[in-house]
Write a structure and sequence with these properties.
Layout lengths: L6 H8 L3 H8 L8 H14 L5 H8 L4 E6 L5 H15 L4 E6 L4 H13 L4 E4 L7 H13 L4 E4 L9 E5 L1 H14 L5 E5 L5 H16 L9 E3 L4 H12 L5 E4 L2 H13 L9 E3 L16 E3 L2 H17 L7 E5 L2 E3 L9
Parallel strand pairs: 1-2, 1-3, 3-4, 4-5, 5-11, 6-7, 6-8, 8-9
Antiparallel strand pairs: 10-12
Helix pairs in contact: 5-12, 6-7, 8-9, 10-11
Length: 341
């Protein structure tokens, strides 16, 4: 494989000094003859020279790169969030570097250190699930000790981060559960996310609050702790169907899809026999055999606000002590729910 072309290679080909070539490439060649510029530009094109962005970044003390460490690229919520963040970053002439922690704290910290070494201008971070309080503190302390502008997205298990964008998940789960109650359902099962996560706890709290506000006794036997996966959604629904529920609130759409598979295996029909509500409104929620009623997270707004926070932290001359923004979810009613006849 041929080695990368350097300014020294161009100097050797053209006979001009490295300083002269550097001035031309950086558009600072005001006192250099036009003919010299043309010779250098021609050589640059012929030799396929590309500037070393790392070296440029060292000089300018900025890389024009923002990192995004996410927990699971397979989860459509995070993959779509990455797409939105990339689009928003382009508005600020930033490139987005995506790292997948696979919900593993050690991998998350490894990515954070790598991004720091690459001198990124800022980092978006969605915490790895099952992180302990000590592990969360380790990640946050690393960012703050190295003075890296950061914004947490959706997850802050122990309310430690100073800069974050999230959604009112309690309200979202409340809307989902209240919708089922208004349709006449009283025996509503709940498949949660991993309850170490703050967003999963908020969704469970919203489910319980809606039941309480509508005079329905909370039955802990109708609550199954999942992990936001298709598999746990299916297992959870298998468990709940044995308890004669009439409806299910699944704390994310992947769990809801697992529940749909379980319902089908039990020869039941949605929504005739069982109503179901998901959470997130991922891309194909509306394309399922029975389009899914779900709670939409405002991912476009999450990406926009998170990027604005990073921009403020990068460019503000004043110290910003904290920036916490909570966005509102929206219930999207489709065909997977119906009133009890």
């Amino acid at each position: 494989m041929k080695s990368r072309v350097t300014i020294k290679d161009i100097a050797q080909k053209t006979g001009f000094s490295v300083t002269t070539i550097s001035l031309v490439l950086n558009d600072k060649a005001n006192h250099i003859p036009r003919e010299t510029k043309l010779i250098i530009v021609k050589a640059v094109k012929e030799m396929g020279y590309r500037p070393n962005k790392m070296a440029v970044g060292l000089v300018k003390k900025q890389s024009n790169i923002i990192g995004f460490v996410l927990p699971d690229i397979r989860n459509q919520f995070f993959s779509y969030t990455a797409k939105v963040l990339e689009d928003e970053c382009h508005k600020y002439d930033w490139n987005l570097l995506i790292c997948n922690s696979d919900n593993n704290h050690k991998q998350e910290l490894k990515h954070l250190k790598m991004l720091c070494d690459y001198m990124v201008d800022g980092i978006f971070l969605s915490m790895a699930a099952n992180s302990t309080e000590k592990e969360v503190e380790e990640s946050i302390n690393f960012l703050e000790d190295n003075k890296i502008p950061y914004c947490l997205i959706d997850r802050d298990m122990f309310d430690i981060g100073k800069y974050k964008i999230s959604v009112d998940h309690l309200q979202g789960a409340y809307l989902a559960t209240e919708h089922l109650i208004k349709l006449g359902h009283k025996k509503i099962g709940c498949i949660t996310g991993p309850l170490i996560l703050d967003d999963a706890r908020q969704r469970l709290a919203g489910y319980k609050q809606a039941l309480k506000d509508n005079g329905i006794k909370i039955d802990e036997n109708l609550i199954f702790e999942g992990d936001y996966s298709f598999e746990k959604g299916k297992i959870g629904c298998d468990n709940l169907l044995a308890k004669n529920i009439t409806a299910v609130f699944a704390a994310n759409d992947f769990s809801a899809m697992g529940a749909l598979a379980s319902i089908k295996e039990h020869n039941l029909i949605v929504p005739r026999d069982i109503s179901i509500v998901g959470y997130d409104d991922i891309a194909f929620a509306s394309l399922l055999e029975v389009p899914l009623t779900t709670v939409r997270q405002p991912i476009d707004a999450i990406g926009q606000k998170a990027t604005e926070v990073i921009n403020q932290l990068v460019n503000s001359e004043e110290n910003i002590d904290s920036k916490i923004i909570i966005l509102e979810p929206k219930l999207i009613v489709r065909s997977s729910t119906k009133a009890i006849s």
